[in-house]
Design brief:
2 strands, 4% strand, 33% helix, 110 residues, 3 helices, single chain, mainly alpha
Length: 110
């Protein structure tokens, strides 16, 4: 979901995220939120800020990192190289989400 299941921008429609997340599951879909935010869509304004935001929060067994892929996210691309280098050095694996990946979701805020 844009903004994640816990987004607050949907507050104009009380209970919408609770209803949507339940309906998606009812229809047999699996969705993922994240448990590590790079903040590249928020306040991070440099490669180093994005890098620090991620590596400081890599403490889960399964880390799903929120990063945005857009033309104007040049800092994100540069940070990703550093994050991967750091992660490999620390023994992390990088992989795609599959049916075996533990599901990471937020509690709906609305």
């Amino acid at each position: 979901f844009p903004g994640g299941t816990s987004n607050t921008v949907s507050s104009f429609n009380k209970g919408i995220m609770t209803r949507l997340s339940k309906e998606v599951k009812k229809k047999g879909y699996v969705y993922f939120d994240w448990n590590v935010d790079s903040n590249d869509a928020g306040g991070a304004r440099s490669t180093n800020q994005i890098y620090r935001n991620v590596v400081r929060n890599l403490y889960y067994q399964t880390n799903v990192v929120l990063m945005h892929d857009a033309e104007n996210k040049k800092y994100t691309v540069k940070a990703l190289r550093k994050i991967i280098k750091y992660g490999k050095k620390k023994g992390y694996d990088f992989d795609r989400i599959t049916s075996y990946t533990p599901v990471i979701t937020h509690r709906p805020n609305n």
